[in-house]
Amino acid sequence: MGYVLKKDGKYLMPANFGQWENWDKAHYTSIQQISVSYITDKDKLAKLLPKPMEPADVPLVNYNLQICSGCDFLAGRGYNLISVNFGAVFKGKKDYVEGAYAAMLWENDTYPILLGREHFGAPKIYGEIPDPAFDKDVWSFSCSEYGTRLVDGEIKNLKAVSDADCRQMSVAGAAGNWLCWRMLPGIGWKGAEVSYATVVKSQPEYHKGWVGEGRIQLHSVTFKQAPISWKIIKGLKSLPVKEYLPATLTELSNDLLVKPTRRLQ
Fold first, then answer.
1. Residue 21 belongs to a domain
2. Dist. CA 37–CA 56, nearest whole Å
3. What is the Cα 76 distance to its own chain's centre?
4. Among 39-43, 131-135, 186-190, 208-212, which is the least confidently predicted range?
5. Which residues, 6+ apart, have CB-to-CB distance to 60 below 8 Å?
6. Does the pTM exceed 0.85?
7. d(CA 78, CA 82)
8. What's the gap between Cα 117 and its chain centre?
9. How many domains does the chain divide into?
10. Which residues, other chains included, contact 62 with Cβ-Cβ below 8 Å and sequence gap of 6+?
């Protein structure tokens, strides 16, 4: 008799080896984060959002570098990522949710890529992301594909924030919404088998923080240079920088809440 998948089982592919552990949350013991945000053109941002999502009143583009350590779902291992989020509002038939739409994530470990794509619908692909460098009071970071540089970022002129500011960031992070789009293409690339928005919650705890000036540089790349990311970079480059907002360097821990993740309608 063959293996029978339970209707409400907790599976990832390959499912025939049994259910996965019952994790209600993914714990990150330590995260070093550099966050650079800017205001862009609202109409151009709207073109990169799936309906029924719309740009938020402030059309924000946010780049985050995260150096993640002590991840319980990786048995204490860590990985690096660069995420791109858009300020957005989901206006569905039943749900109205404001949050940060996950436009893109590059990560340098395959396993969190698979977990995030399959469970949350987070648009993750592989990227070469070294630890950030610090030189002459400037923190810098980058992402590459097959050795071709895609993204460069930096933060400088840092000033420490207070403990009260860290507590406020923790409260705001727990109240925020991370919007994803879970999509599985149809066989033969004919439409989509699965296509819908999700909302993900987390409980960050910020321990230290600094505020400064940030910048992002996107490099023009071809299909030959970056066969997976070239079109993504082209889309991101269509979003002009109208005004940079204060950038931050923070140290935090975080619980990514698995169980409350839900489909939006």
1. no
2. 14
3. 20
4. 186-190
5. 37, 38, 39, 40, 86, 87, 245
6. yes
7. 14
8. 11
9. 1
10. 35, 36, 37, 83, 84, 85, 86, 87, 100
